[in-house]
Design brief:
The protein is α/β, with parallel strands linked by helices and 225 residues long. It has 8 helices and 11 strands. The longest helix has 16 residues. The protein binds guanosine-5'-monophosphate.
């Protein structure tokens, strides 16, 4: 019998702007009952349609800084427009102890902090098929000023330079293909020998023994006539 570790795995999903990592994560959650995403804290403004406690826990800069002082984050960073984003220790601990595999949808800086703390974390980077496709997707959103778009591009180029720090890269050209690739990564990771807690051979011997008895197996010596 193969027994996996009781605690779940930590999975980081990062990606360049408009790579569609949020959509990939939502699809993964729909298809895999044991996956959960940890809700981050942020001090950025809530956007239209976002729900506090679901998309993020929205707090002020002051509240965020108090949480830093109280050591409540596994990692945190200033990401877009110098706003804070952070992963709650309590939230992740609760999910891992339930045996859930926990997705952290975080940026490159946060990913490095988590990797240092837990080297066994699975790090996946999602990319858009090209920067011209990113430009098209940003324009289609039509929500940001030119300065904000330029800022996003700069961040995207900087992040691409950090890809070598990840274990896997998945290009999100066709959503279904990208989701399948991430699922394949997670399945393979689960099969890694170093993620298995115990392999028990006793059970297998017992089963073989019972099988032989059931079949009235006679262990005759081999006779060559
Ligand atoms: P957005 O403001 O568009 O929701 O997210 C901006 C960036 O912040 C994304 O790249 C996202 O991955 C990153 N992010 C979201 N939550 C966290 C977090 O808890 N920690 C870190 N380091 N980055 C985060």
């Amino acid at each position: 019998m193969i027994k996996s570790k009781k605690n779940g795995e930590l999975i980081i999903i990062s990606g360049t702007t408009c790579a569609g990592k949020g959509t990939v994560v939502q699809e993964l959650l729909k298809r895999n009952g044991n996956l959960e995403v940890s809700t981050s804290y942020t001090s950025r403004e809530k956007r239209d349609g976002e729900v506090d406690g679901k998309d993020y826990f929205f707090v002020t800069d002051q509240e965020f800084e108090n949480m830093i002082k109280n050591d409540e984050f596994l990692e945190y960073a200033k990401v877009q427009y110098a706003k804070y984003y952070g992963t709650s220790k309590k939230e992740v601990k609760k999910l891992l102890e339930k045996g859930k595999d926990v997705i952290l949808e975080i940026d490159v800086q946060g990913a490095q902090q988590i990797k240092k703390l837990f080297p066994e974390t699975i790090l996946i980077f999602i990319m858009a098929p090209s920067m011209s496709e990113v430009k098209r997707r940003i324009k289609a959103r039509g929500k940001e000023s030119n300065e904000q778009i330029i800022e996003r591009f700069k961040t995207a180029y900087n992040e691409i330079n950090e890809i070598h720090k990840y274990n896997y890269v998945v290009v999100n050209d066709v959503l279904e293909d990208a989701v399948k690739k991430v699922e394949a990564i997670l399945i393979s990771e689960k099969c890694r020998v170093d993620r298995i807690e115990e392999i028990s051979l006793e059970n297998q011997e017992e089963i073989i023994h019972e099988f032989l008895i059931d079949k009235n197996f006679e262990n005759k010596p081999i006779e060559i006539k």
